[in-house]
Design brief:
Number of helices: 2
Shape: rod-shaped
Structural class: mainly alpha
Strand content: under 5%
Distance between the termini: 47 Å
Length: 144
């Protein structure tokens, strides 16, 4: 690839990498929020279980049924939130992989650009050396 084409491609690759990084940061924040929600549900469930254990002998049947429903509801919410956390974590990991791919792609273009620049410098130096050699031959030839 020539250097000018690479100079056009590199900003596009940089932009794609930045978009992917932004997406990954938002997915990470979402994952952390989902984890926090799961933690709160687990703490609530644990508190409920502890209070029910402490009051197990002093509660009437109606209250016992209500607590059982609350416990079942919390269990379902926890299970649902666990699925949400799993999906959120998977999305976050996929975004990390996409970002890694974009970083590698950008690095490839940067490396190609550097090689193209080095080749141009080498070609320019070779041309300059050729002109210097011709001048030396011409100058040396006049001296004879």
């Amino acid at each position: 690839m020539n250097r000018l084409l690479l100079e056009r491609i590199m900003p596009i690759a940089e932009h794609e990498k930045e978009e992917t990084a932004t997406e990954m940061r938002s997915l990470k924040a979402r994952f952390e929020a989902d984890m926090e929600a799961l933690y709160r549900l687990l703490v609530t469930y644990e508190s409920l279980m502890k209070s029910q254990d402490e009051q197990s002998g002093t509660v009437d049947l109606l209250m016992s049924q209500y607590r059982e429903k609350m416990r079942d509801l919390l269990k379902r919410q926890i299970e649902t939130q666990q699925l949400v956390v799993t999906q959120s974590r998977n999305r976050y990991h996929l975004a990390q992989e996409r970002l890694l791919g974009k970083v590698v792609e950008e690095k490839k273009y940067v490396t190609l650009h550097e090689k193209a620049s080095q080749q141009e410098v080498a070609a320019t130096k070779a041309t300059e050396q050729s002109f210097i050699d011709e001048l030396a031959v011409i100058h040396h030839g006049k001296g004879k």
